[in-house]
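Need residues for this backbone.
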């Protein structure tokens, strides 16, 4: 009760300390104008671009499901699931679907008895880490490729792939350490969920043209929903992060978009040798991307055009961005809700710890993979 009473006071102190400092450095009118101008610029130049990608990728994802391509991918990946992730084969379907959409898609599957019956309890809980590591993967890769860094994005995908294994395995170990009895029980004989989905799709009495048209339109609509869902994250989180990342304009503070107090680079500069060795970052401003990915990868993507326009990024940075953006995929804002929906809220901290480690490893691996590829 005492903590509850102190919360308003604590919030007021932090709020005025933060925005008071920004207003003092930039000037209050400039700060307010920069807030609005940056948000508007992000909406017009970044959000609508990302929404265009989500609409197209949503249509692609839906048509891949409609014509069984997802089923083929699941069957190809199924033999890898047990040795690499210690998960049953059907988990591959979750990885493919989250890659095509977003990480909460894994929970829709996990709550389906036809899917979850193949898992032991510790495996079912760890699937939040597995699915999150591929969330919005297609959007991230297409976005990076659209900026001219297709090969670097593929290297980043490999980093996210390895990071997902690390995160999932660590989560399983932490869960079993806390709940040893979650390893009990016999996994049911597999019956492909994908085959059931395909059967339902092919049972539809529609012609080929209608199936293609409906798939494209339904998938595009889901892409619009995803594009709308990322707007608050991009406008709020990215605006705030950018004001902490960039400094004044060429002629000082004018209230223009993308001005700020350059606090994050000043902090990162103190630890520059760490970020350079681990991730190959040559500019301290680049740490803003992984930090933003903690809350929303869509918001983190909003930073890339400004970084590129400022000449701050190269292929290595894109590889690391792709790996960490995919692997973390806003897990701090979704893990609690995902585990709560599965009924294991008390294990949230263990899943978060595991995924933090997995995301860091994904970035490190992507950097050194990029260095290795550059040698040939």
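Answer:
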């Amino acid at each position: 009760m005492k903590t509850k009473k102190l919360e308003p006071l604590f919030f007021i102190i932090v709020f005025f300390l933060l925005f008071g400092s920004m207003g003092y450095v930039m000037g209050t009118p400039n700060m307010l104008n920069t807030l609005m101008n940056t948000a508007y610029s992000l909406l017009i130049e970044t959000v609508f671009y990302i929404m265009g990608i989500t609409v197209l990728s949503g249509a692609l994802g839906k048509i891949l499901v409609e014509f069984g391509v997802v089923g083929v991918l699941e069957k190809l990946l199924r033999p890898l699931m047990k040795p690499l992730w210690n998960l049953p084969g059907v988990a591959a379907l979750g990885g493919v679907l989250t890659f095509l959409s977003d990480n909460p898609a894994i929970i829709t599957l996990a709550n389906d008895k036809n899917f979850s019956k193949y898992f032991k309890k510790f495996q079912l809980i760890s699937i939040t880490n597995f699915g999150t590591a591929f969330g919005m993967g297609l959007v991230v890769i297409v976005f990076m490729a659209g900026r001219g860094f297709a090969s670097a994005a593929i290297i980043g995908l490999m980093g996210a792939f390895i990071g997902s294994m690390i995160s999932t395995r660590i989560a399983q170990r932490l869960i079993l350490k806390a709940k040893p009895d979650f390893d009990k029980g016999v996994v049911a004989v597999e019956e492909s969920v994908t085959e059931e989905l395909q059967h339902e799709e092919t049972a539809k009495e529609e012609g080929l043209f209608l199936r293609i048209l409906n798939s494209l339109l339904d998938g595009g609509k889901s892409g619009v929903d995803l594009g709308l869902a990322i707007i608050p994250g991009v406008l709020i989180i990215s605006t705030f992060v950018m004001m902490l990342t960039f400094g004044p304009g060429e002629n000082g503070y004018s209230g223009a978009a993308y001005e700020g107090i350059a606090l994050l680079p000043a902090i990162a500069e103190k630890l520059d040798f760490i970020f350079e060795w681990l991730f190959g970052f040559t500019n301290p401003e680049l740490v803003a991307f992984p930090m933003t990915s903690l809350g929303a990868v869509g918001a983190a993507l909003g930073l890339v055009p400004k970084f590129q326009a400022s000449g701050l990024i190269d292929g290595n940075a894109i590889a690391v961005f792709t790996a960490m953006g995919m692997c973390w995929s806003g897990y701090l804002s979704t893990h609690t809700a995902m585990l709560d929906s599965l009924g294991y809220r008390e294990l949230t901290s263990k899943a978060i710890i595991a995924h933090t480690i997995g995301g860091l490893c994904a970035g490190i691996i992507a950097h050194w993979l990029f260095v290795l590829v550059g040698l040939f």
